[in-house]
Structure formats: C-alpha cells, structure tokens
Automatic annotation (TrEMBL):
This is Stage 0 sporulation protein A homolog. Its main location: cytoplasm. SUPFAM superfamilies: CheY-like, Homeodomain-like. Residues 421-520 form the HTH araC/xylS-type domain. InterPro entries: CheY-like_superfamily (IPR011006), Homeodomain-like_sf (IPR009057), HptR (IPR051552), HTH_AraC (IPR018060), Sig_transdc_resp-reg_receiver (IPR001789), Tscrpt_reg_AraC-type_HTH (IPR020449). One of its GO terms (molecular function) is DNA-binding transcription factor activity. The modification 4-aspartylphosphate is found at residue 55. It is found in: Cytoplasm. Residues 3-120 form the Response regulatory domain. Keywords: Cytoplasm, DNA-binding, Phosphoprotein, Transcription, Transcription regulation, Two-component regulatory system. GO terms for biological process: phosphorelay signal transduction system.
Length: 534
C-alpha cells in the first residue's frame, strides 16, 4: 500500500474525496488529511508519504509552496494538484516543481481514480527499478568485497590484479602498501560493521580501501606515495582511523598493522602478519594501533615465560596469610608480564590453572576446601578459556583467591596452631644445623614469615629464635650431663659453629658457663651416688 496525504481547506471537498475513492482497491492508504500546506509539511516531516493530493489556494502555506517543499526535500513523493484555477502561471509553477498532474475542479471520482491508477503503476515501476538497482549494487559490492578478501588471502594471480582493479573502478596505486585489521573491542552488528566500513572509505578515499572480513572485522589496505604528505605515514593514518571510529561512531577498535610491502601482490603477506597478532588481543584493554615490528620484537624473546615455582609459592603464602593486597599485587604482576611478553592465551590459561590448583591443594592439605570453593575452582578451571580479555581472567582469579583467603582467615586459629606445632617438631629435629633459620622453616611449612611469627608467638609464648635457643640449650645440658664431650664439640652438636658464642648464650640462658654447669652436675651426681650407697 502506498500512503496518500489529502490537503484542502474546504471540508466538503476533503470529505467527498476521502469517502468516494476506494483507496485500498487501487493500492493506496489514505494516511492523513490536512487543512493547509503548513500542516501538510509538518505531517510529512513526521511520516513520509508516496502521494500528496492538494489544492492551491489555502491559508498559511498554499499548494504551490507545498509542491516546492516536496520537490526540494522529498523527491520520491508525487504531488497532484486539484484546483479551480486555470491561470498559466499556476500551471507553469507546477511544472517547475515537477508536479505529477494538474487537475481542474470540478473533478469526478472516475477522473481522479484514473489518475490514481496511473500513479500506482508508476510507483510500482519505480519500486521495481529501485529493487533491481539495489540488488545490482549489493551484488557489485559483494563481488568487490570478495575480490579484496581474496587478495588478502593470496588467491588472486598477480597478472589478474590490475584487471580486477579496473573492473571495479578502483584506483589504488602507490609506492608501498600494508594491510591492517580493525577489530571491534565488543561484537558489533552487521549494519554497524557496514557503517564503519563505509565511513572509513569515505573519510580516507586517497589512502584507504576498506572492506568487511568474514569474522566481524574490517580489513583495510593502506597505500603511500612519495608525493603524499610525509607527516601522515601509515601508522599515523591507522591512529587517526582508530580515533575517528571511536569519536564519530562510538565503536572502540584495535588496529593490527601488518608489515609494509612494495606491491599489491604482497598484501597477502602483510595481511597474514596482521592476522597472527589477532590471537593476542585478549591481552589488551585500550584501543591502540599494534604494529608487526613491535609484536615481532616482543614475541620472539628467548626468555618468554614465567618463574612458575616462585610465583606459585608467593601466591599460596599470600592466600594462606590472608594478605589481600599481596594477592592483588601478584596477580597484577602476572597480567603485566603476559602483556609485555605477548604470551599466547593457551600458555596463560595453563599457568593460571596451575595457580588455582596450587592454592586448592594447599587448602586441601589443611582440610579447608569446602564445597562452595571446590565448585568455584572447578568452574574457573574450565571457564578461563571463555574470557575475552586477560582483565576478565584477572578479575576471576582475584575473586577466587580472595574467597580462598577468607576461608583461611576463618580457620586461622587452628591453622596457626598446627603450623606452630609443626615448627616445634622441625626445630627438635634440625636444631643441630648451624644454618637453621626462620626463613627456612617458613619455606618448609609454606607460610609467610609475618603470619608464622605471629601465630608461633601466640601458640608457644616464644619467638622462633627463643624456641630454637631453648631447644639447643636443653640438648647442650643433656650432653654436658651425660657425656665427657668438650665444649666446642657440644657447641657443634647443638648448631653453633663458634664455641665462644655458644658459651656466651649458654651462660646467659642457664646462668653458668658450660664448664661450671658440667662441674655442678658432676658434684650433684656424686652426692646422689653416696646417698644411694648409704
């Protein structure tokens, strides 16, 4: 149905025309009725119509002024003037504004219907022709897009490139070229991608050929000539496009630039290099231009990887000690290192999974993994691959490690006692080692020094050094009491490499030097023996 607007200041004429004409049978819909040209202009600005039937003489805006407005602003709308004026000037103006027909009153229903039938046929022909043109333009654009994509894929023979460019009326000759892929940060609709492509081609016709890829991206070929403005190089062009697409269209994009090539036949090599960088977009957060040379330098560093064991230990200690800031710092450092070294998604996911398992295993050994944390860990292990960007991985890891740290904190008392007890056992077994230290014990127990020191003091009432000294002194007293070993031998047996230092500590702790203590023990033992004989 084609929409019709009836415009006349006489109510009787409006009613007669609206009621006498079988609009639907003729393929029309009487969409609106207006009393003057001003109302009609306001109407078609809100709702376009295919046909306007109007009188000439009306208040405010007459029919000829309305016809002029339609000619200038709505060229696809047909205008039929129905008037009682035969003046030549009126007819001349009507022709000037491309009025479809000029009908004199009084007009019969049959005459008006005859005009409507003719207009309907013309409207149908125009629509069919437009559909044909649209289909042709769509097909032409599709074929051009296919050619440009095949050029990127290396599927166009070198000798056929020039012929294809002429066929599609593409003038794209320069001294150097490169391919660049524009990847929207978030998925966009097909219409948005088409708009972005058309915007880019229109904005930079001298330098850029833009077309749609098969994966929701826009691919561009960029050319440079010696005669071009030297301040606008290929990188600068890509930066300008990223900024324009963001500011004008509201679409945040990453731009991946392949290497420069000297002929159109080499664009497939440039495109291939740009495509290889796409895998690493998950590392980024901001819209930037990324060049192949920059990627190549970072990607092929021989030491690309993690200090896996050290990172696992530090993270496990931070979780066990409920050190939230330390957890955040460690996870942030991991993310930064991934970006700096351009590590593949697979490598990063595997490493993150190892961190999750290390934390879960440490809690499992302490019997602290509840059902909720277990399920959360399992979901995270399988869900890391679905994260679009490394920042999403970071957030999920932090959430999991925070939950694990909270569980540790709730069980801190029993955990601290267990660690302190284990430390005492370790001291009793290793006190004879001269290099035994707080750091060594904490490393063996997989616990941070600060948390261990606090937990150990609460449980034993002593510091680590005090407990170690006590164990060594008790052992020394037993040796002085039951053996004839010399002082330096006892010092070594009890973990002291310097016998003088041992003697000093012994006197400070026991109140006597080792020799005095041995003599007093011998005298006491002699007294005890006499008493036993008596």
């Amino acid at each position: 149905m084609y929409k019709v607007l009836l415009v006349d200041d006489e109510i009787l004429i409006r009613e007669r025309i609206s009621k006498k004409i079988p609009w639907e049978e003729l393929g029309f819909e009487l969409a609106g009725i207006c009393e003057n040209g001003r109302e009609a202009i306001a109407y078609i600005e809100r709702e376009p119509v295919s046909l306007i039937l109007t009188d000439i003489c009306m208040p405010f805006v007459d029919g000829l002024e309305l016809a002029k407005y339609v000619y200038e602003n709505a060229k696809n709308t047909k205008v039929v003037i129905i008037t009682g004026y035969e003046e030549f000037e009126y007819a001349k103006k009507a022709l000037e504004y491309h009025v479809f027909s000029y009908i004199l009153k009084p007009v019969t229903s049959a005459e008006l219907m005859e005009n409507l039938i003719e207009i309907h046929k013309i409207l149908e022909d125009e629509r069919n022709n437009q559909q044909v043109r649209t289909r042709y333009e769509d097909s032409y654009q599709l074929l051009e897009n296919q050619f440009l994509l095949q050029l990127a894929q290396g599927k166009v023979p070198e000798e056929a490139i020039g012929e294809k460019l002429r066929e599609f009326k593409i003038n794209f000759r320069g001294d150097s070229y490169c391919a660049a892929i524009f990847c929207p940060r978030e998925p966009v609709s097909r219409m948005e991608l088409e708009h972005m492509t058309e915007f880019t081609r229109t904005k930079y016709p001298e330098y850029v050929l833009a077309f749609q890829g098969n994966d929701g991206t826009m691919i561009t070929y960029i050319k440079r000539s010696r005669s071009d403005d030297q301040e606008i190089n290929m990188v600068r062009l890509c930066q300008m496009m990223v900024q324009d697409i963001s500011s004008k269209l509201g679409i945040e994009v990453f731009c991946l630039m392949g290497s420069a090539v000297m002929n159109l036949n080499g664009l497939n090599l440039s495109y291939e290099k740009a495509l290889r960088m796409k895998e690493y977009l998950y590392l980024e957060k901001e819209s930037h231009v990324y060049e192949w040379d920059q990627y190549k330098k970072c990607r092929y560093q021989p030491d690309s990887g993690f200090e896996k064991n050290d990172r696992e230990k530090r993270l496990v200690l931070a979780v066990q000690s409920n050190l939230k800031e330390e957890i955040r710092r460690e996870v942030s450092l991991i993310r930064c290192e991934c970006s700096e070294k351009w590590l593949s998604r697979a490598k990063v996911v595997i490493f993150c999974q190892s961190l999750i398992l290390a934390v879960m295993n440490s809690l499992e050994r302490l019997n602290m993994v509840d059902d909720e944390l277990f399920l959360k860990g399992q979901e995270l292990l399988s869900g890391l691959y679905s994260c679009s960007y490394i920042y999403e991985m970071e957030e999920k890891l932090l959430d999991f490690f925070d939950s694990a740290a909270d569980i540790m904190n709730r069980n801190r008392s029993s955990y601290g006692e267990e660690r302190a007890s284990m430390a005492l056992n370790y001291i009793s077994e290793h006190y004879s080692e001269c290099n035994l230290s707080l750091q060594e014990v904490c490393s063996k127990l997989a616990i941070s020094v600060s948390y261990f020191s606090s937990a150990f003091k609460n449980y034993t009432g002593m510091t680590f050094v005090e407990a170690l000294t006590k164990a060594r002194m008790e052992a020394a007293k037993e040796l002085l009491k039951n053996t004839t070993m010399k002082t330096y031998e006892i010092a070594e047996r009890c973990g002291y490499s310097d016998s003088n230092y041992f003697s000093s500590i012994f006197k400070k702790t026991v109140g006597n030097t080792p020799r005095e203590y041995a003599k007093s023990v011998t005298r006491q033992k002699g007294k005890d023996d006499k008493e036993d004989k008596v």
